[in-house]
UniProtKB/TrEMBL annotation:
Region ranges (Disordered): 117-215
Pfam families in the cross-refs: PI3K_p85B (PF02192)
Protein name as catalogued: PI3K-ABD domain-containing protein
Family in the record: Belongs to the PI3/PI4-kinase family.
Gene3D superfamilies hit by this protein: Phosphatidylinositol 3-kinase Catalytic Subunit, Chain A, domain 1
Biased composition annotated in UniProt, kind: Pro residues: 124-134, 156-189
Compositionally biased spans, kind Basic residues: 204-215
Record-annotated PI3K-ABD domain positions: 16-105
């Protein structure tokens, strides 16, 4: 799966750390790790690399520094040869901080010229597979639905009065029965009011006779 291009200086990072460990692969099969500043140009990295490589085995197989160039994998998943050694490490947009030292094949000046022409035709920031002049696709945000309000309950309406029942008479009360009279009680009959049961006064406990002292 081809990784998507990133807008940072290093894959997964918007800004490269001030100091970063760079792994350099030499043509003699040795790998040298260098601690570099993020703004170090490639020419300074190459000089530091070949100074350190003289202390490693098989250093006699290496040629002069000017015979080699750096190559790396960019965030667009492309293998790019870096002919311009004035470029800074943070400007390379590497996928990982790994550089390989190789001998350039073909005409070096012609390759540099072709790369410069390719940069003019394709503006910076445009993916390699996107034709020049084609606008980049930007992810569209999905519109969020506004929170739904709970449905309002209709107000409760009073029960309808049956036809023939005079207004003011409760629905369950027969016509002619005065309001407040129970339905089973004939009209004009006084309502039975519950009588309160008289409560008995509290009984006092019987007094005990005083105890007489023994003779």
């Amino acid at each position: 799966m081809v990784p998507r291009p990133s807008s940072g200086e290093l894959w997964g990072l918007h800004l490269m750390p001030p100091r970063i460990q760079v792994d350099c692969c030499l043509p003699n099969g040795m790998m040298v790790s260098l601690e570099c500043l993020r703004e170090t140009p490639l020419l300074s990295i190459k000089q530091q690399l070949f100074t350190e490589a003289r202390t490693y085995p098989l250093s006699h197989l290496l040629q002069e520094e000017s015979s080699y160039i750096f190559v790396g994998v960019t965030q667009e998943a492309e293998r790019e040869e870096f002919y311009d050694e004035t470029r800074r490490l943070c400007d390379l947009r590497l996928f990982h901080p790994i550089l390989k030292v190789i001998e350039p094949l073909g005409n070096r000046e012609e390759k540099i010229l072709n790369r410069e022409i390719g940069k003019i035709g394709n503006p910076p920031g445009n993916p390699p597979g996107n034709p020049p002049g084609t606008p980049q696709e930007t992810p569209q945000e999905t519109p969020q639905e506004p929170p739904r309000k709970p449905p309002r309950k209709p107000p409760r309406q009073p029960p309808r009065n049956p036809p023939g029942n005079p207004p003011g008479n409760p629905p369950g009360n027969p016509p002619g029965n005065p309001p407040g009279n129970p339905p089973g009680n004939p009209p004009g009959t006084p309502q039975e009011t519950p009588q309160e049961t008289p409560q008995e006064p509290p009984r006092k406990p019987p007094r005990k006779p005083p105890r007489k002292p023994p003779f």
